[in-house]
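Most newcomers find our protein records easier to grasp once they have seen one. There is nothing in a record beyond a sequence line and a structure line. Getting from the letters to the tokens is the skill we practise here. An example says more than a description, so a record of this kind follows:
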Amino acid sequence: MGKYIIAGLEINKVSFKDLFLNKTMYFSYFLILLALIGVVEIFELRYFPEVATAHSFGVEPVTAELRQAMRDAIFGNVGEVSRENPWTLFIANYMYMIYTGSGIIFLVALAEVLHLKIVARLAASFMVLGLAMVFAGLFTIATDLNLLNMMWMILDPNVNTGMWLMLPLYLTYIPFVLFEIYLILTNKRELARKLAFPILILSIGVDLVEYYIQAKLFSMNTARHLWTEFPVLMVYFIISAFVSSLGIMGVLSYLVHRNKEGYPELMALIRKGLLFFIYLLAIYEVVGYLVIDKDWAFIILFGEFRGLYFGGYILFTLVLPFLLLFRIVKHYILTASISVIIGGFIGRILFVYGGNANPMSNRFGIDYEKYNFYDLVSRFNYVPPHLGEVLIVLGSVGIVIMIYKLVDTLFSINIERESH
């Protein structure tokens, strides 16, 4: 295969067909198409809701759609973040992609600093995957904000809002990671190792800023029990992200590196990392539910979310992977990696939806507060995800696959490189 060389970087000479028309890209196109369908669905939901008329009220006077249409007509809530439906599956996926992607980048940079040669030889593929997940997270939040909101964010800027707070960080973080990948691809390993330390700091910075932004959003009007009371919450997010990150790295290692020298050593290292962070995460879970608000804890442990918590999050993130990885005779690292990927996403859903399920407290001692003038007093608020949200989340996976495949086709990131 011929190559172009630009600034020391080798770029493969590939045809349009080889670059864009292959099975992997077709699969990513399919997922992205689902996302586009989801965008249309959400746009229609936000800007073309059912019109509240005398006829519709006469036919079906108590449907949720008509109540929402009347509320929109009176108060003008057009898809904005509100106390009734503050966060959605968009935010769960955004948090998962951003934290997991930055977690992969952090772990690889840490391996560079610690001179772990088996990881360093494959660092380019892992870092590109982590960065692709960051872009997928930004894609998800962009669809949540929608074009009109983003337009007014520029035309009428409020620098105290979450998106404006994120811009300086990502405009610094992403170029640093891209430059690190460039150094690895051009075999400037010593300089890449020196740059790895600032990337470690920036990766933690991403988590810090994201935590601050999300905590600020979560505290709308009335503080959410989960968000304000869970102990050392930012560290909890980082530890749980490391579990998911190692799961993603395990799956990628199997798919593209299983025939390479050092693969067993790499998977053994991933196994040790998973066991360590699963252990830490289990401690956080036990401690967390001993100290947070008992009303919220009961919703998760014994109430409406108990099936998702125990049958989804605890099973897939902690119990099943621990049993698979702890076996002495044979370690099912790939199965455990898939399990923690699923469990980690369920954990983000629980934090987003569970954190808003009980936002109105009995702080005045006269029963739980209403969400709005027309609502009945309720201690539990839950709005299941719309189909459009599900499609957009699936589409974000297509973004990850497409970015990774394009970069690999052009730069051969999957090949082993010298770690010296």
